[in-house]
């Protein structure tokens, strides 16, 4: 039995090394794209807000002050019951490039961000759409240019990085940022090998024509989440997709303040994975299962001191390759501090995701706000 466990451990490690060498390395060792100097298209920046008055007041000026020749800001008030609409109207009086879409509660689409976004997209003036959230701010005043300059006749889906604010000496903050980093490395890497399977609504751009080409969110309108990842999974192709990872293109979001809040947020996000294309579910699932089995088998074999010298060599080799690949990725995305605690954060995240899978199988997560 222990021999079987040992050889299984070898096989699982081999699978993980294949991911590191042939998938994740494609992003880790790729060159960062620079913004192009070609003609910049007019852009509609779309922000959907539900009870986000405080965040709009804090972050919207960073969007307004972007250095870009021609852009509008489409603010979608998704049936807010705070002062969000009043604040939007106050900003609109001062800035002529702000357009407001006020969404009333709709019985058929109650609590659906996708319904609100669809109305905002229809109301937008331009064919090039750039999305972010109300609790996000661009890391620079070149954000729109960094993202929009990558549009071309053949490139119509632009995937960006949405980081979270850093807080010192916070385990929760480290876990949130590590999960965000790992997710970004995955979807950037898969896009690099021609299989874009998701993007994040905090920093995402695409052409309006591609939205209407597949009837927008209609195929998954009743699913609570997925306005970003399910749409990209359905609509984007490798030839049409570009990843933008330059520091000036990043957005920064406010992280969850408690484990409970983060748990509920991730429940919604993870639930959408069940609707990915079958091949994407398989490869993402294989990676997660391999991570889980790697640490379980390593713990058993080392705990029983069975061939512990060999197990340690294999464990160390895997960690060395992982540190190399994720270290370069973290450096590109300005998250280097997370690499020091990589094994601990990975183990905790594996357990955390397992709990979410079990919880989601028992009950469905709530609507987006």
Automatic annotation (TrEMBL):
EC number assigned by the record: 2.4.-.-
InterPro entries: Glyco_trans_2-like, Nucleotide-diphossugar_trans
Keyword vocabulary terms for this entry: Glycosyltransferase, Membrane, Transferase, Transmembrane, Transmembrane helix
GO MF entries: glycosyltransferase activity
Top-tier EC class: transferase
Transmembrane portions of the chain: 6-29, 282-304, 310-328, 340-359
Location of the Glycosyltransferase 2-like domain: 44-167
Family, as annotated: Belongs to the glycosyltransferase 2 family.
Name by which UniProt lists this protein: Glycosyltransferase
Organism: Pseudofulvibacter geojedonensis
